[in-house]
Q: What sequence folds into this?
């Protein structure tokens, strides 16, 4: 099959509600700073009623990454589940507006479209309470073979490991990707996801995955070690390629034969870290799909991350293609 897309992603289709908060608000509402917690619809609505005024935008980790790929000028596709409701329509329209292929079958009888309540403290840390809603109804029936087989890189969102039907969808996508010679990538998404599904993630990575994205906390959690160097050594025994972010320390890209450390792009003020890892993955995979060297892929990722943490919201507010050209990338 011809290359239809640079990246095709599978993820939780979520609408983000992002608002400023302080540590006292987090403590008063029993929220673990910097973590992603799953909540039910009632808890989500209760928290929404207490949050400061914020912004609402289509999000979801893999959806944000696809927005970044599109902003770089890449060809992108997205697979995810929304409900037949207003938020579902909003999410669908916004994905299509950025130029991504998204053609879902909306859920008619079931939970509403997923929502994530994101409270951002003055230090830029985001604390997420997510009602997964319709997104967890994504099954192997929602995996479109033509999309997977037509993508240079197939990207899977680790958050979906919380749902058994989605894990079956991962297996189908992996089989299609490998059968058509496509690269399979996964993001570990969150340290709590790793804690819940360590064994399953390791087995999936060892048997199916080519490229692993993670941050330092996640990769160390995966191998239950405090040593970043040890964790990197372990992941390169299991995947062909790993790209791991380290906040202000930049990122490390490694294969079993070579390792590159790439600095972070300087940011005048960190406003909101929501989407930083998602945009790093976007820049990295765009570069990889276009045949760029691994250090350049990491630089594109770091550039995209620096743009998104300079404002509220998980998606680029300027053209990443133009920004990369301006920076000589």
A:
């Amino acid at each position: 099959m011809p290359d239809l897309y640079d990246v095709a992603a599978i993820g939780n289709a979520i609408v983000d509600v992002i608002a400023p908060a302080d540590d006292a608000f987090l403590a008063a509402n029993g929220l673990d700073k910097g973590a992603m917690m799953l909540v039910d619809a009632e808890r989500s609505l209760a928290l929404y009623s207490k949050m400061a005024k914020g912004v609402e935008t289509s999000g979801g980790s893999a959806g944000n990454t696809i927005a970044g790929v599109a902003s770089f000028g890449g060809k992108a596709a997205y697979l995810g589940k929304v409900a037949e409701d207003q938020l579902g329509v909003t999410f669908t329209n916004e994905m299509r507006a950025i130029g991504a292929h998204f053609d879902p079958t909306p859920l008619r009888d079931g939970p509403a479209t997923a929502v994530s309540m994101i409270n951002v403290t003055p230090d830029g840390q985001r604390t997420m309470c997510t009602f997964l809603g319709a997104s967890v109804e994504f099954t192997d029936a929602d995996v479109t073979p033509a999309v997977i087989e037509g993508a240079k890189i197939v990207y899977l969102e680790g958050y979906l490991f919380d749902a058994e039907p989605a894990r079956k969808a991962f297996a189908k996508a992996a089989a299609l990707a490998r059968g058509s010679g496509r690269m399979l990538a996964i993001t570990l998404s969150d340290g709590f996801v790793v804690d819940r599904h360590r064994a399953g993630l390791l087995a999936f990575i060892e048997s199916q995955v080519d490229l692993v994205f993670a941050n330092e906390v996640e990769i160390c959690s995966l191998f239950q070690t405090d040593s970043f160097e040890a964790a990197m050594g372990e992941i390169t025994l299991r995947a062909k390629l790993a790209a791991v972010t380290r906040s202000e320390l930049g990122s490390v890209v490694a294969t079993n034969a070579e390792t590159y450390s790439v600095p972070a792009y300087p940011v005048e003020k960190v406003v909101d870290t929501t989407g930083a890892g998602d945009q790093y993955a976007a820049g990295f995979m765009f570069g990889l799909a276009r045949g760029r060297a691994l250090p350049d892929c990491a630089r594109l990722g770091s550039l995209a991350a620096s743009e998104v943490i300079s404002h509220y919201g998980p998606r680029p507010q300027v053209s990443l293609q133009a920004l990369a050209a301006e920076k000589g990338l």
Observations:
- The two ends are 30 Å apart (CA to CA).
- The chain has one domain: 5-13+60-109+136-326.
